[in-house]
Every structure is written in structure tokens, then in C-alpha cells.
Design goal:
The protein is about 5% helix and about 55% strand. It is mainly beta.
Length: about 325
């Protein structure tokens, strides 16, 4: 009997030692709640709900560029910050998608040095949710109406525009070489499309039954954060899929390069849970945010960055 108790004790200690709970390695106070963030060539670039883009050099450990949008007028005519919905960077140019304050339509700018170029204005009547560079000449757009469009920056015209799904759009993510985009929305379906042509490659369904807040795609894997309290994963090339049950809405999801690990915000405390997708085991719980997490990025297998409505940008080290 005693031998059995000792064996169970050792087994339980082994399980506990395999699970890591920790705080952030470093923290930065952003100028407002962080709504979107990208990692480009050693720089973390984020946009806030107070209308500010910030560029943080990870090597120098400091903000190297800030750009604040002009204030906009609300429906009462009062001036307010222009909430940034999406940011990106390519070859020295920042892409900023923001609220125009006019009927839900969007502003899209490119900032290069001291020059700001308007790409889309409110009068163009485009209700956009997300934008990303595909290359220096093209931008992929995600419409609220769940349409995808590829914008040619030189002509200002859309090369294609297609209806991805019949539901409201939430988020899209690009794979490593930006050739494939994963679109997610209110239906819970993830649609993979070819960014150059708009060709639908695959639809992933059967896991989430409700709105997807965030999606990611890396290697053969897709991750989805669901309102139905499911942290979903798809091995889209092999056809397998599943989910990790949550006790709260899953607001954020991210994959490590090649999709070996997944991170989800899946509890009421905005903690981040890290899973190994090969073993399907939880390997870490990261505690530090106090509000909804809107941005998650793996730099590699052991480093994760996050940003949220609490105005914090956090860096995490995952030892395993």
C-alpha cells in the first residue's frame, strides 16, 4: 500500500513539474489599449485604441517610433482618438487601419518617414476590420461583411474582392510567406484562401459553433479562438482537428513557427495557456494581463509576446 502511495506521489510530482506557471519576463506600458500587433525584423509594432502606433526595438529595448493619428469627431461632433484596428510594416513603411468616425467606415494610411499617404478614406465607404501587407505593392483587406480583397497600392484598385462566408467577419491571419490567409468569423468556420488570387483552398469546420475572435496559421496548423469556449486547432493538411475546452470566451489564439505550440487566452483572468500540439498537453500558464488580450505572437518556440486592453505589452519566456 505504501509503495503504491509513493508511486502515485512521484507520478503527480512529474505531472506538476511538466506544467509551468509564471509571470512575464518584461512589461511595457503602451499608450492605450493594444488592439493589434505585429513582429517585423526584431521590432514589435502595435496600435492602440488611443490612436497611437508604437514601434519597439527588441534589441535596443526602447520605443524607436511613435505616430499618433489626428483626432476624429464622434456622432456628437466631439473630438476623440481614432482607434487603430490594424497595423503592419514592410520595407520601412507602416500600414495603419483606423476608425474614421464617419458611419463605421475606415481610414487606411501608409506612413513612411515624415510622409503620410492616404490609401482609403471615409468617403470611400469601406467598413474594414483588418489589413496586412502581402508585399510592398499589395495589401490584403478584411471587410466587416466577410469579404476579402487584394488592394493594388499603385493603382488604388482591388485586384479581386470575394465573399468568404455569409457571416460577419472577425479576423484573418497570414502564413509565414503570406501566400495563404485564414479567415474566421461569426459562423465558426475557418476559410483558407490563396492571397494572390483569392482562390478558396479549404474550409475548416465542425469544431467551433459560434463567433471566432481570432485565428492564426503556421505550417500545417490553424488555431481559432471561439466565443463558444473552445480553443480550436486544425491540422489542415492531414485533416485532423480538435479543441481544448475553456471556462470562458477564448479571445486570442496564436501558433509558434511550424505550429508546434499554441497559445490561447481562455479564462476570465486573461491568463495565457500554452499547449503542445503534438502531445495535446498543457505545458504553461502565463499570468500578467488584467483585461482582454487582443494580440498574441510567438517569436519562436520559447518566446511569446502579447498585448491587451489593459495597455500592457508583455514578453514571456517558456522554458520547456
Amino acid at each position: 500500500m505504501m509503495r503504491r502511495i509513493v508511486l502515485l506521489l512521484f507520478l503527480s510530482l512529474g505531472i506538476l513539474s511538466a506544467f509551468e506557471s509564471r509571470g512575464p519576463a518584461w512589461s511595457i506600458e503602451a499608450k492605450g489599449g493594444v488592439k493589434d500587433m505585429v513582429l517585423r525584423q526584431g521590432h514589435l509594432i502595435w496600435g492602440t485604441d488611443r490612436g497611437t502606433l508604437q514601434d519597439y526595438d527588441l534589441k535596443a529595448k526602447r520605443i524607436v517610433r511613435e505616430y499618433t493619428l489626428p483626432k476624429i469627431k464622434d456622432f456628437m461632433g466631439d473630438l476623440m482618438p481614432a482607434k487603430i484596428a490594424a497595423v503592419d510594416w514592410d520595407e520601412g513603411r507602416y500600414l495603419i487601419l483606423s476608425d474614421s468616425g464617419q458611419g463605421g467606415f475606415s481610414d487606411l494610411r501608409i506612413v513612411e518617414g515624415n510622409t503620410t499617404r492616404w490609401v482609403i478614406k471615409a468617403e470611400d465607404r469601406k467598413p474594414l476590420v483588418k489589413a496586412r501587407f502581402i508585399d510592398k505593392d499589395h495589401v490584403l483587406l478584411g471587410y466587416l461583411s466577410d469579404e476579402a480583397a487584394l488592394l493594388d497600392l499603385s493603382s488604388g484598385k482591388e485586384i479581386y474582392r470575394l465573399q468568404v462566408d455569409e457571416s460577419k467577419f472577425s479576423d484573418f491571419a497570414l502564413n509565414e510567406d503570406r501566400t495563404i490567409a485564414a479567415f474566421g468569423g461569426e459562423s465558426g468556420i475557418v476559410t483558407l484562401l490563396e492571397t494572390a488570387t483569392g482562390k478558396i483552398l479549404k474550409r475548416l469546420s465542425g469544431v467551433n459553433k459560434d463567433n471566432l475572435y481570432m485565428v492564426d496559421i503556421k505550417g500545417d496548423y490553424v488555431a481559432a479562438a471561439g466565443q463558444d469556449r473552445r480553443a480550436a486547432w486544425y491540422d489542415w493538411k492531414r485533416g485532423s482537428q480538435g479543441f481544448f475546452p475553456a471556462n470562458f470566451f477564448v479571445y486570442a489564439a496564436a501558433l509558434s513557427p511550424r505550429g508546434k505550440r499554441a497559445a490561447y487566452s481562455m479564462d476570465e483572468q486573461s491568463n495565457l495557456t500554452i499547449f503542445d500540439l503534438e502531445s495535446k498537453e498543457k505545458i504553461a500558464l502565463l499570468k500578467g494581463h488584467s483585461a482582454i488580450v487582443n494580440a498574441l505572437i510567438f517569436a519562436d518556440l520559447h518566446i511569446l509576446y502579447s498585448g491587451g486592453d489593459d495597455g500592457k505589452v508583455l514578453g514571456w519566456k517558456i522554458n520547456q
